[in-house]
What does this fold into?
Amino acid sequence: MSKKNKFKTSIGDQTLRILTLLMAISVVVLMVWMGWEMFHAARPSIQKFGFGFITGRVWDPVKEQFGALPFIYGTIVTSLIALLLAAPIGLGVAIFLNEMAISKVRTVVGFLVEMLAAIPSVVYGLWGIFVLAPWLRETVQPGLAKWLGFLPLFQGTPVGFGMLAGGLILAVMILPTIAAISREVMAAVPNMQREAALALGATKWEMIRLAVLPYAKSGIMGGIMLGLGRALGETMAVTMVIGNRPDILPSLFAPAYSMAAVIANEFTEATYDLYLSALVEIGLILFGITLILNVFARLLIWSVAQGPKGGNLV
Amino acid sequence: MFRKMGKFLTTVIIGMLAVTLVSCGAQDPSTPAGQEKAAPVNLTGAGSSFVFPLLNQQIEEYRKNNPNITINYQSTGSGAGIKQVSEQTLDFGATDGPMTEDQQKVAKGGKILHIPLTLGAVAVTYNAPNVPKNLKLGPAVLADIFLGKITHWNDQRIASENPGVSLPDTKITVARRSDGSGTTYIFSDYLTSVSPEWSSKVGKGTSLNWPVGIGGKGNAGVAGVIQQTPGTIGYLELAYAVQNNLSYATMQNKEGKWIVPSLQSTSAAAAAATIPEDMRVSIVNAPGVDAYPIAGFAWALIYQDQKDKAKGTALVNFINWAIHDGQNLSEELHYPKLPASLISREEVMLKSVTFQGQPILK
It folds into this structure.
């Protein structure tokens, strides 16, 4: 170990430090830059409509009137439907694969679930048009209307295409994300935890509830939030089944619209500047909502992670 | 062993390349005189996705006789085409809705000419249980269906236009394009011209605030909704409806005649319409007994004053070819032909394109 050699390594370390620092900074810069550029391009629309853009319910490119509320509503409701369906199922899949299944089943089913994530979204969309929508129209929606038709959520003509179809297709799409991440964090739970619970006379379910889930909960939350992020931004599959109608209607059978979908649909033919600017402002709002949700998710994970590990029996 | 094989393959490939090159060289003298030593010219265009299949075929065909000219056309949508032409980032654009006065004013390179390249027709397509093909739908009935005022297939007004046809008591679901599109423009242009109520409530454009209906993405999306949902009515590019064997309606034209949409009845609309000097005209609800009423032009957008001689010459020559010989490619691709009376006027227009004050095409 001569001095020269030491000098060399420290140069190498320095370079590496600076290089990686630059890479880290570039991510931040990119983010701020994107936000700023979008804000800049959305200026005409922000100046013209102000806050009314977010509360406005009319989207009329012919009369140059733009309001984003129906799109915000559609994005949030479809994502919530997706989350409500995919989170419990995803968690169930993870529990089964990790704690119940024999190893052969685990490999095969685990592989299949992860395959779901690899299907391109346009394929989901086509499946939505040709399989999901007719199935909803002929079987699911008449059934829901018959048994739960007293709720405004399940009233109206069953068409198939609409909010429910959008939510369902998103649920299928985010299921693998939630399942795969939950499974990984549950696999990371030390076996001693499980053995300790079992040694105390816990049943399998009690063992999962007391020893596995509390240990893994911050990771599971993270998986759910990643799924939510995907649902908020998904464009192609949603636009193919949601019915693309900027309206706020109580029924889940009715057509709706999402933010990402309207941008993709109308951007290429936005023929005047204000129109284009209004579309960019929708993009900006989507950017904002995603950011806020991520911060919120991060806080949630922190607060959960700081809590005591292990649960109470009662 | 493998290495030897590799060497052998390389030799074969090089040999094949050499032969190709030689044969290319041998073909050169057969190109038309005057173009033998022509310098390569690259033209870039973008815009309407409706004209893309035809234009692309025309470009390939044209290149066979003019190997020095490379034309790159991107179907980015009419709106984007107009914008890029105005900013002079393209050599030409194509659109299926004419540029507005305001858009023309902000164009950076001066006056833009609209040269019709082809025609489009929009078919009113439906999927109603047990309803035969070519159901008759008059303009007022069509407008009221899309306004949401006629809600069932067995409505009295549909029945009175189709005596003898038994119509089901099914709810009508309207399907329409969700993406901005020239097809929507032509369709809403027609409804605007026949229905005062549509005109005041909705108007015309590439995207609209629709009173009712489900939006599908692209022709394929709308066709998917129609095929999968009994009781649906929508509109599609004629070629798309024909190729997918969907039922489409017979429309009533300005003269009161019932016309089935076809390439011929679309050409007839262009031939019968009064077309102004600048060709920026809507031909919906055109006069003429044979004219199909829901049709429109797709135009090439080029600057009258060309800044680059080589490019300007190549562009004008290509467009001139596209409106003459290039039209022979139309029908197999399900595009109507431009009427002869119009082509001679377009030629006059092309002759007004100049480079430094001198006309390019003589």
Q: What stands out?
A: The interface with chain A takes residues 76-80, 82, 97, 100, 102-103, 171, 173, 178-181, 202-210, 213-217, 221, 224-225, 228-229 of chain B (CB under 8 Å). The radius of gyration of chain B is 24 Å.
